Amino acid sequence: MKGAEGGRGGIGGAGDPVTGGSNPVAGGSDPVTGGSNPVTGDSNPVAGGSIPVFLYHAVMEDPPDWIAEFTVTPKVFAAHLDAVVDSGRTPVTVSALAAHLAGRAPLPARPVLLTFDDGFADLPGPTAEALAGRGLAATAYLTTGAITPGGRSLLPPAPMMTLDQAAGLEQYGMEVGSHTVTHAQLDTLPPRDLARELRDSRAVLEDALGHGIRHLAYPHGYNSGRVRRMAAAAGYETATAVRHALSSDRDERYRIARLIVRQSHTVADVEDWLAGRGARIAPYRDSAKTVGWRWYRRARAVVRGPVFAG
Questions:
Q1: Which ranges are annotated Polar residues under compositional bias (predicted)?
Q2: List of domains in the chain
Q3: 36-58 pLDDT, tens per residue?
């Protein structure tokens, strides 16, 4: 999405391609700060070191203009899923990746993750069915203000699922995580508002599902050291960003890299990512452009207030 952390352009602001910066893959990284903290005791390293984590939004034929760039049709989505199956990679949930990054459990030799943000109307129906029909695990991050009747969200109008459909996602074998309440740019919020976004979205989902919610996706991928620390303090076990990069077995638990799927991406692009090609491998340092864009958005938020991260 436009201006996305690590993205290359789309809705809502200037693009921010990830350029430059060192790639401190050797030795791993601290899950919150990005400092040195290698995952030890891993007897099953991921082959090639790269883990594609796909980020989807809507799967529909006629999306609203604001999300069209990040929408794929059901036919294209089916072709993507078939490519995943044909790749021989093993789909896993974010919980499985979290256990591996924390040094608690190994991953399959060639894992892949499928994630879905926001909670569009297709998710609990044809999208979940397409995944389940192929036996593919996935994780859905829901924006609670957008799927709760009478809720408040910064997302523009679009066909959305409802909160009472969240349990149905789990019946299809999908894992559910939080995508905050309003979809604000978290790294521009004052501490009290940030804490509320992290806490309230989790509480709503836990009440609806009857169990804990352990995983978070930053709206638009926007995060900072402060946001990551507060996510950890709020009880989340992981948080996913965007970065439009391949993750790895040494990625940061509170800034897991994802590949944002756009309407313009082809099946060949998906096949390249599944083969570990066509994108950088995280972790790596933020570029000067990313840092500068973050400071610009913070200054703008002081003047304008909360802004839709999209």
A1: 34-43
A2: 47-304 (3.20.20.370)
A3: 333 323 334 454 589 999 999 99
